[in-house]
Structure formats: C-alpha cells, structure tokens
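Q: What does the predicted 3D structure of M16 family peptidase look like?
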Amino acid sequence: MRRLLPLLLLLLMPVLPASAQQPPDATRFFPYTLNTTILPNGLTVVRVPFNSPGIVAYVTAVRVGSRNEVEPGRTGFAHFFEHMMFKGTKANPEGQRERILGGFGFDDNAFTTDDITVYQVYGPTAGLEKLIALEADRFQNLEYSEPAFQTEALAVLGEYHKNAAGPDLKLEEALAKTAFTRHTYQHTTLGFYEDIKAMPQAYAYSRSFFERWYTPANTTLFIVGDFNDAQVVSQVTKAYGGWQRQPTSVIIPTEPPQTKQRTVHVDWPQPTQPRHVLAWHTPAARADTPDAAIQTILAEYLVGDTSPAYKELVLEKQYVESLNVYTTPHRDPYLFPIDATLQDEKFRADVDAVLRREVTALSGGPVDAVRLRAIQDHLRYGLLMDLETPRDVAIDLALYAGVMGRPDALASYLKQLGSVTPQQLTLFARKYLEDKNLTVLTLTPKAVAAGGTP
C-alpha cells in the first residue's frame, strides 16, 4: 500500500570528508555533480549545480518519520511536527516567514513518510541568502505556544477524518497492523487514531520531540540550481554553525520473521470497488545492496503493463481495474504489496490464483531476459526524465539519501537498476515471495458483503 504523504539503532549520516564530490563512477548513472560538505556540528550540505538561470531549490531532509515513534501513545508525531515547523520563532513570528518568502515568489511545502520528513522551498536565487537565514532560524529556534499547539493538533485530527472517509487509509492501517507485530511500521504516518485524539495534551512531549530529532547530524540540506557555491557554503556555515543540539538514538523493535500466512479482511460500509492485496516482507533499501532496485523491477515484471498478469486480468478478462505495487524505499525491512482493484467480488479467487501463479513461475524461473532489459531501461529513463527541475532533483536526492543514509544514494540506486540480473530476480522471489511470508488483505464493500453489486 502507498504510505501517506509515505532498525536496531538510529543511523546518523555517514562521516564523509569535510568536503567531497560525488565519485566519478556515479556520474555515469546520475547526470549532476554532488558537492558535499559536513559542517563541524554534523550538518550535511549537498550542493548541485543545475542549469536553471535564477532559480534554486532548497530541500531539508530530517531523518525522522513514523518509524521513529517508539513510545506507546505517541504515534503520529513526526507528521504532526511537520505542521508545527511552520509556527515561527521569536525573530520571525508565525506568518512572517511566509510573507517574506511570498514576497520573493518562493513556493513552500513539506511532507512526512515512514522514515523521513522533507521540507522544500523553490524559487528565485535572488532570495537565497534570506531563505538560508529563515530556514536556519526555524530549525534552531522554533517557538510555539500551547494554545497554538492544541489548535494544530485538532487540525491533524481533521486531516485523519478526511483521509478516513475513503478506504485507502483503512486498508493501510489493517495491512500494517497485521503484517507487523513489533516494528513501528505497524502504524501509518498519521499514527493510531487514539494517539491522534490525545495529541492536544502532549505539548511538553512535542518540545522534547523537537530537541530529540531536529539535530544537525540528523539533517541534510540539498541546494540545487543556480547559485554561487562558495557564497552558499559561507552563508550556510554562518547561519547553521550555532546549531548544537546533540544527536539521539532509539532502539527500533526488530520485526521477527513471519512463519505462516496471515489474513485480514475489511468490510467497507460504503459503495466502492473490492480490493485484493498480497504483501510479502522484503529487505530494507540500502545503498550497498540491490534489494531496492530488485523490488522496483520485480513490480514491473510481475504486474506491469507488459506482464502476463496485466494482459490477462486487466486487458483480456477485465477482472481487474488496476494493478499496483508500491515499492517506496524503507530504512528497515518492509513490504512488497501487490494491490488489485477488482471489477467485481466474483473475480477475487481467479485474480488471486493468477497473481500466485505468476509469483510461482518467477520463483521457478526462467526470467525473460529481453523483457527484463526493457523494464530496466524504461525505469532508468523514466526516473532520469523526471529530474527536469531543480526541485525534482533535490526531492529525489532527499528521499533516497534520507532512507539510505548517503547523499549519493540516488546515484547508487540508478546504477543498481541497470545491473540486476535474471538470476537475482529469481533468487529474490524464491527467498521472499513465499506463502509463509505473505499477508493477504481483502476489502469488500457493504453491498457486496450482502451478496449484491456495489
């Protein structure tokens, strides 16, 4: 399922030389130069020159998501705190930052996943020096009152209710709670509903959350576009140099191996289309293994537009409206979920049989090497073509670096996409896509449950 916008010890950013460039080999797979500096306080600053005259993207990735929420009753705080980061400081009270950025014409937004929180600002290079000062101020000196905190907590509760009006959130919650018994991936980015309702009473905890996770060593800046590199490094060093909060680590519960197939069913009270999800536990995304690339390719190979399953279920028999696999990289072992939206409940057994048949065929081999190469080329080309603006580049760099812990993680991922072999696909499917490692999620709308058609 798609995580909402979706370990043993908290991993800090790796210690690189004080100033480093992307390795020459990586430029074969990622077309832009990464200039990386780590400040004495641990803040990683990545600059990427991009041919975008007068335009720059400024993206801040903090390695904190719902994964880090280990205390009972405190789920949803990573996402909630994304909201609080716009509340202002003593130097720039609430609303002033937005007025200044709006005056320059900057676009400003943020999102939270299971593993990271990303803040993005995009606009004219002419305002970059002021932007650096504003961002450094809020990450070091965030201030908000308890009434403001409580008001925002109610807004987050409203966001939950809005999402809960459709079936996707309920599906996501049911799958996470069933597939994970110990790991914090068992709750969504929004958090458990009871915890969200209790947030207005957690003002003091919110302050400790800020101190714990919003530290320089847990943060990476990505500055992409048209700028003077020496000036930017000087400005960032001056603005962020006084940020001295110390890094924190917590123990993330390890999910034990699943030993038998699990099932969970959702009865949806409103008319909608039935859903059928097969989800297997799979490894974490790492820069030094091909596991993330294998899962991306596997999704296309099993249910993509050129797959036998897609041709049979979507095009020919029309049992299924859509087939999707959401393979967002995760810091810890997560799930490989095939999500089928059925045209009718009566097709469920046939759809399940076809999907399992294709997984069995892949596990037994052989893999169609020609189709595999076409998928690899298409994925790499598509990813590179999506890097059309400085903002695209900065956000993709932040996503992969935030999960994998290296500024050049996106380049590593692109390289791995092109090097996966047929044998690796087969071995991966044989090892992980087995019944004892599977959770089956079904959703039936109320009318179908009663024997009718929605």
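A (community wiki): The structure tokens above were generated from the sequence. The longest strand covers residues 334-342. Residues 68 and 347 are 40 Å apart (CA to CA).
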